């Protein structure tokens, strides 16, 4: 069930039986020579939509823009400042909480969002804790999960790609995005085959000097739609298990 495709009475009826929601969150950033700029949003969105269909969980609109300043030397990247993303997440959470959602699960597709999401959660909890007098509003639980970090996905990624998986523009995320958008497949010869490794803690120009084609330790020429389908099924199982434990679903 997708929030964008529901009417307000349908959302109100949903809240009578369930107060959990999944919010896909990603980024709009370069993903090497053969990866889509929208990869980090497409991957969690695809998994979240499937969980919504299979298990009747409400799925919010995808937060497509994330914290991606280190990719800004590559055309197509759009980044929010950490402070801007914190404000967006605070307002999203506050809106959902006002309606009665008590368990908000952010399904993340971009490692660069992790610190900012944690800071946003801390801001929300602090604001609630520091209100004057006893709190009378509903409980609120926040968490996030990285689709790429689940045990089934990690096992598959290791078996498919080994050390060539890397840490950005990885073969696994490219495969999943191609499964979701097979018309976007691209064959590109990687040179070098496995990209340099290193830290992304730098500004955009330094990042491009360190990683000239945008990849970090990866060989995404190994990606395939077939791998993407298997990673998709593994990701759905991983995330459903994680969400179910968080939200208390049977």
Characterise the protein shown here.
- The protein has 250 residues and is α/β, with parallel strands linked by helices.
- 45% of the residues lie in helices and 8% in strands.
- The chain has helices at 8-17, 39-55, 82-99, 114-129, 151-161, 171-180, 204-210, 225-247, and strands spanning 20-25, 58-59, 103-108, 141-146.
- Strands 2-1-3-4 form a 4-stranded parallel β-sheet, with helices on both faces.
- Strand 1, helix 2 and strand 2 (58-59) form a beta-alpha-beta unit.
- Helix 5 (151-161) packs antiparallel against helix 8.
- The longest helix has 23 residues, at 225-247.
Describe what is shown at a glance:
With 250 residues, the protein is of the alpha/beta class. The chain has eight helices and four strands; from the N terminus they run αβαβαβαβαααα. It has helices at 8-17, 39-55, 82-99, 114-129, 151-161, 171-180, 204-210, 225-247, and strands spanning 20-25, 58-59, 103-108, 141-146.
Provide key terms for this protein.
250 residues; 8 helices; 4-stranded parallel β-sheet; alpha/beta; single chain
How is the biggest beta sheet arranged?
4 strands, parallel
- Give the overall shape, derived from the CA principal axes: globular
Across the major sheet, the strand order is 2-1-3-4
**Averaged pLDDT:** 96
Q: State which percent range the strand residues make up.
A: 5-15%
Number of extended strands: 4
**Distance between the first and last residues' Cα:** 18 Å
What fraction, in percent, of the residue positions are helical? 40-55%
Task: Evaluate the radius of gyration.
Answer: 19 Å
Output the number of helix runs: 8
Oligomer: single chain
Overall structural class, as computed from helix and strand content, comes to: alpha/beta
Q: What is the N-to-C order of secondary-structure elements (H for helix, E for strand)? A: HEHEHEHEHHHH
Low-confidence runs: none
